[in-house]
Amino acid sequence: DTGVSQDPRHKITKRGQNVTFRCDPISEHNRLYWYRQTLGQGPEFLTYFQNEAQLEKSRLLSDRFSAERPKGSFSTLEIQRTEQGDSAMYLCASSSRDTNNSPLHFGNGTRLTVT
Amino acid sequence: LAKTTQPISMDSYEGQEVNITCSHNNIATNDYITWYQQFPSQGPRFIIQGYKTKVTNEVASLFIPADRKSSTLSLPRVSLSDTAVYYCLVGLYSGAGSYQLTFGKGTKLSVIP
User: Which end of chain B is more exposed for a tag (fewer CB within 10 A), N or C?
Assistant: First the structure.
């Protein structure tokens, strides 16, 4: 068990550019979550997958955001046409069972700065 | 979207017991309450989880009343390394029937020497 891995740890981009983040969950964890966290706030739910199926997306999630988990293992989160308001820590988590009560195991996040 | 409510911050001296309460009035019947700890520049880390009454592990206790509309995380004899933000997490239904796992705003605990 190597834990949840996120790449890159830091990303600086100019406004209007596209960025993509990767998350590798704990092996055989079938649920994967994306959260966003800004300074001084709690993590905000973005979306989650069960295996390769995307089961829920936050209504707050802009159309510029898209997430995939094509083979039910790693996941990518893409932000198109980045805006300064997208600057945040993007956290990925995974869990092992098909219920909403399984503890989440978080990675250490990707910090995005949009200039 | 229903929310959880926690105190924004708490201070405690080393060696004292700390109790942090989270309110979650709209918790779903089958949902558990889970608490996480977060240090700067790290992802949240699981501390404890419970459904009702009391749960204890090697680092904390969790007290949940019968109506389950709140929960209290208890940290015995805190040390400086317990300085962190603590979040409670429950699954909450929004008004539109959507289901999301939602964190509270967190409680920043500062342990003083």
Answer: C
B49 and A105 within 8 Å at the Cβ level: the answer is: no
Residue A88 has, within 13 A of its CA and on its CB side, a CA count of 21
**Dihedrals φ, ψ of A64, to 5°?**
-75, -15
Is residue A81 within 8 Å of residue A18, measured between CB atoms?
A: yes
Q: Where do the DSSP E strands lie in A1-115? A: 5-7, 10-13, 19-24, 31-37, 44-50, 53-57, 65-68, 75-79, 88-95, 105-106, 110-114
- Residue whose token pair is 């992802």: B43
Locate the DSSP E strands across B26-83.
Answer: 33-38, 45-50, 53-56, 61-64, 70-75
pLDDT in tens, B35-79: 999 999 899 999 999 999 999 999 999 999 999 999 999 999 999
Q: Other CB atoms closer than 10 Å to residue B13's CB: what's the count?
A: 10
| Res B24 pLDDT > 60 | yes
What token pair was written down for B73? 């995380």
Rounded-to-integer distance, Cα A46 and Cα A58, Å: 5
DSSP string across B7-23: -SEEEEETT--EEEEEE
CB contact under 8 A, B102 and A45: yes
Nearest Cβ partner for A42 among B34, B87, B96: B87
